[in-house]
C-alpha cells in the first residue's frame, strides 16, 4: 500500500479547486494582488478561531517571529531562549535580528520546552525573551513559563507554526497575552498555496506596528520597515480553507487516537494520551529505542510503501549553522534522532493506520 506523508489530493479536492479558481479569477479581474478584502476577512476570522484580539498577516512564519522580536525591541546584543527541538526557523529569526540564542532543554516525554530549564537559563543568562514552540502541534506549558518569565519581565513569543487549532488549558493557542506566530506554509494544518504567516496579538497598537513594518514602514507612523506582506491570493486560499479547518483538525484527533490504540504493546513510544484532545496533531511522532532502530524502522516502512520523516534528526545545537551557543541541550540531543513521524492528515484511513501499525508491530 502506498501511503504518502502529506495528502494534498483529498485536501484540494474537485469542489475546493472549483471554488478557489473562481475566487482567484475574481482577484485577477479586480487587479487586487498585494492586499485585499480576503486579507481583512481572514485576519478577522482567524483571530476569532484562535481566541485572539488581532491577527496581522505577514509574508511567512519566519518573518512573523522576526517582526515580533523587532516590535519588542529585541535585537543586537540581546539573548533569547529557544528550545533544542524545533524547526530551523525559530533560531534563524533570533540570529536574523542580530540577537544571541541560548538553548533551553526539553521535556523528554514530549519534546516541549522544559519550564525548569527555562528558569535556570533565565537566571543564568539575563534573557530578554524566550520562544517556546508548540512542537508537533502539542500545547507548550505556557502558564508554567509565564510564572517563570512574567515576574522578571522576560517576553514570551509563542512559535505556533504547527499549532493551528491547538488548545492550552486556558484556551486556544493565540488567546494568551503573548504574541503568537503562525506559518501557513503548504504542509501546515492550515496552509496557503505558497508562503504566508501571521502574528496574533492582544492589542491594536501591536497589530498596527506589525502591519506597518511589513509594508515598508509606510503609513501615518512612518518607520523603518521591510517587505513582509501576504499576497491577496494566499489570503483568499486561507480564508476558503478556514471553513473546513475545525472539521479537519477533528479528523486528525481521530487519526491520532486510532494510532495510539493500534500501537499499544508495540516497541515504539507514543506521546502522552493527555494530548489526544488538545493537540492539532500537525505531526504524529513516535519515539524509537535508538537512532539505529529508528533508521531500520523507517527503511522497513519505506520498503512497504509508507513515507515517514525523522523530525527532528538533530537538536538545533548539533546542526552545523547553529553550533557553539550557550545553554542546556542534553535531553534535546537524546530526544532527536529517535523520533519518527508517521503519516497523518485529515484523510488518513483506518485501513492505512492498521497497515502501518502492523508493520511496526512486526518488528
Ligand atoms: C514552519 C515553521 C516555521 C516557519 O516557517 P516558514 O517556512 O517561514 O513559514 C517556524 N517554526 C516552526 C516550528 C515551523 O514548523
UniProtKB/TrEMBL annotation:
One of its GO terms (molecular function) is pyridoxal phosphate binding. This is DegT family aminotransferase. PANTHER family: DTDP-4-AMINO-4,6-DIDEOXYGALACTOSE TRANSAMINASE, TRANSAMINASE. The modification N6-(pyridoxal phosphate)lysine is found at residue 188. It comes from the Bacteria. Belongs to the DegT/DnrJ/EryC1 family. Gene3D superfamilies: Type I PLP-dependent aspartate aminotransferase-like (Major domain). GO terms for biological process: polysaccharide biosynthetic process. Pfam families: DegT_DnrJ_EryC1. The active site is at residue 188. Keywords: Aminotransferase, Pyridoxal phosphate, Transferase. InterPro entries: DegT/StrS_aminotransferase, PyrdxlP-dep_Trfase, PyrdxlP-dep_Trfase_major.
Amino acid at each position: 500500500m502506498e501511503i504518502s506523508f502529506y495528502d494534498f489530493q483529498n485536501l484540494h479536492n474537485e469542489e475546493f479547486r472549483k471554488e478557489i479558481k473562481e475566487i482567484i479569477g475574481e482577484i485577477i479581474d479586480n487587479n487586487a494582488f498585494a492586499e485585499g478584502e480576503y486579507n481583512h476577512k481572514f485576519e478577522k476570522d482567524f483571530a476569532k478561531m484562535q481566541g485572539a484580539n488581532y491577527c496581522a498577516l505577514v509574508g511567512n512564519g519566519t518573518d512573523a517571529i522576526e517582526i515580533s522580536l523587532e516590535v519588542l525591541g529585541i535585537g543586537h546584543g540581546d539573548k533569547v531562549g529557544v528550545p533544542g527541538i524545533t524547526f530551523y526557523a525559530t533560531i534563524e529569526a533570533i540570529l536574523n535580528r542580530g540577537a544571541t540564542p541560548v538553548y533551553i532543554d526539553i521535556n523528554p516525554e514530549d519534546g516541549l520546552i522544559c519550564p525548569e530549564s527555562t528558569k535556570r537559563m533565565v537566571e543564568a543568562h539575563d534573557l530578554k525573551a524566550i520562544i517556546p514552540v508548540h512542537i508537533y502541534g502539542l500545547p507548550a506549558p505556557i502558564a508554567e513559563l509565564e510564572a517563570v518569565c512574567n515576574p522578571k519581565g522576560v517576553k514570551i513569543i509563542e512559535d505556533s507554526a504547527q499549532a493551528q487549532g491547538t488548545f492550552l488549558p486556558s484556551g486556544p493557542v493565540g488567546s494568551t497575552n503573548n504574541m503568537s506566530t503562525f506559518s501557513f506554509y503548504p504542509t501546515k494544518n492550515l496552509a496557503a498555496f505558497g508562503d504566508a504567516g501571521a502574528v496574533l496579538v492582544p492589542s491594536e497598537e501591536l497589530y498596527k506596528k506589525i502591519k506597518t513594518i511589513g509594508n515598508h514602514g509606510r503609513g501615518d507612523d512612518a518607520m523603518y520597515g521591510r517587505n513582509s506582506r501576504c499576497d491577496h491570493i494566499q489570503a483568499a486560499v486561507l480564508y476558503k480553507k478556514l471553513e473546513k479547518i475545525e472539521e479537519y483538525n477533528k479528523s486528525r484527533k481521530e487519526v491520532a487516537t486510532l494510532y495510539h490504540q493500534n500501537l499499544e504493546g508495540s516497541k515504539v513510544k507514543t506521546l502522552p494520551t493527555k494530548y489526544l484532545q488538545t493537540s492539532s496533531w500537525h505531526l504524529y511522532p513516535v519515539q524509537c529505542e535508538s537512532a539505529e532502530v529508528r533508521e531500520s524502522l523507517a527503511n522497513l516502512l519505506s520498503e512497504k510503501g509508507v513515507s515517514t520523516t525523522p523530525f527532528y534528526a538533530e537538536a538545533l545545537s548539533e546542526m552545523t549553522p547553529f553550533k557553539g551557543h550557550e545553554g542546556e541541550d542534553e535531553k534535546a540531543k537524546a530526544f532527536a534522532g529517535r523520533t519518527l513521524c508517521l503519516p497523518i492528515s485529515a484523510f488518513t484511513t483506518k485501513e492505512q493506520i492498521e497497515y502501518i501499525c502492523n508493520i511496526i508491530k512486526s518488528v
